[in-house]
């Protein structure tokens, strides 16, 4: 089975996403979705990526809820800056030392940081294990470092250890 369908969960979620995007359960849509899911799952298997091992599903769910709350809070903060007649903010770069080495944890951290309004993942130095992000309103660099490490990095370490 793994030879023909090396990533069954990926194929399943891809099919679900396809059907949701198409907003149709017509036979041709389902057949095309299954074909796409199978072909893309097979192609992903040919890349030879290591399998994802989620060690703590509960921590992952808590992290997703935390990220959702942070995105809502950041949207409000950025909106206040944008609509303010005299916006006062200091944008800048923050360098964060990381303990994460898992490529999946790093990819998820990149998605979290980039999806949160007001922050952008700029670069990652894998040799020095340093992350560079740009922040729209840097009030205190140490606070940002602690925020990223405690709210995101620690759960990711537990999830992908």
Describe the structure.
By secondary structure, the chain is mostly helical. The protein has two domains: about 10-45, no CATH class; about 55-160, no CATH class. Helices cover about 60% and strands about 10% of the residues. It is built from five helices and three strands. The protein has helices at about 10-20, 25-45, 55-85, 105-115, 140-160; strands at about 90-95, 120-125, 130-135. Strands 1-3-2 form a three-stranded antiparallel sheet. A hairpin with a 4-residue loop joins strand 2 and strand 3 (about 130-135). Helix 1 runs antiparallel to helix 2, helix 3 runs antiparallel to helix 5 and helix 4 crosses helix 5 (about 140-160). The mean pLDDT is about 90.
Topology (SSEs and partners):
Elements: H1 8-22, H2 27-46, H3 57-83, E1 92-97, H4 103-115, E2 119-125, E3 130-135, H5 141-159
Antiparallel strand pairs: 1-3, 2-3
Helix pairs in contact: 1-2, 3-5, 4-5
């Amino acid at each position: 089975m793994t030879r023909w369908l090396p990533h069954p969960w990926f194929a399943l979620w891809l099919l679900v996403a396809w059907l949701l995007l198409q907003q149709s359960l017509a036979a041709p849509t389902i057949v095309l979705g299954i074909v796409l899911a199978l072909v893309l799952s097979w192609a992903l298997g040919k890349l030879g990526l290591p399998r994802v091992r989620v060690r703590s599903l509960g921590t992952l769910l808590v992290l997703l809820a935390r990220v959702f709350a942070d995105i809502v809070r950041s949207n409000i903060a950025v909106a206040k800056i944008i609509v303010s007649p005299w916006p006062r903010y200091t944008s800048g770069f923050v360098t964060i030392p990381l303990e994460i080495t898992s490529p999946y944890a790093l990819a998820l951290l990149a998605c979290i940081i980039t999806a949160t309004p007001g922050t952008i993942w700029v670069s990652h130095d894998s040799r020095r294990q340093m992350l560079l992000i740009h922040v729209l309103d840097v009030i205190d660099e140490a606070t940002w470092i602690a925020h990223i490490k405690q709210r995101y990095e620690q759960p990711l370490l537990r999830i992908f250890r």
